[in-house]
Specification:
It is built from seven helices and three strands. Helix 3 packs antiparallel against helix 4. The chain has about 120 residues and is an alpha+beta fold. The N terminus is likely disordered. Helix content is about 50%, strand content about 20%. It has a single domain, classed as 2-Layer Sandwich (rbstp2171). The chain has a three-stranded antiparallel sheet with strand order 1-2-3.
Length: about 120
């Protein structure tokens, strides 16, 4: 990943190492979207790799509310910034942000696996 001045200021290397020690693999996500006034918004977060329990919870919660399930998995996986409420307040009612975040988790959860069925 190309390191920019902004990414250097976003999180210290020491903090990244601390998060790796605690969670194993961690990833940076830059979430870009336009607000209702057409302004570009960028929210940066560090998240941990999802596990089977995360997927099970997401699937169960999505049966009653897919929107809430997306917000909950986002909240569960984001490990930095630690003030998740502030991040979620920044996202506000832009629920598509959660949709795109969950879509980008596909490689971790093999959700884009190809299954080929053949009639026998």
């Amino acid at each position: 990943m190309k390191e920019t001045k902004e990414s250097k200021e976003f999180i210290a290397k020491e903090k990244i190492e601390e998060l790796k020690q605690k969670y194993g693999s961690v990833y940076k996500s830059e979430i870009e979207f336009k607000d209702e006034d057409g302004n570009d918004r960028i929210i940066e977060v560090i998240f941990r790799k999802p596990n089977a329990d995360d997927l099970d919870s997401f699937q169960t919660e999505s049966q009653s509310s897919l929107s809430i399930a997306r917000q909950n998995i986002f909240n569960s996986l984001v490990v930095y910034p630690e003030d998740k409420k502030k991040v979620m307040d920044e996202i506000g009612n832009y629920h598509g942000v959660y949709l795109q975040f969950v879509e980008e988790l596909s490689p971790f959860l093999a959700m884009k696996a190809k299954v080929k069925n053949v009639k026998l």
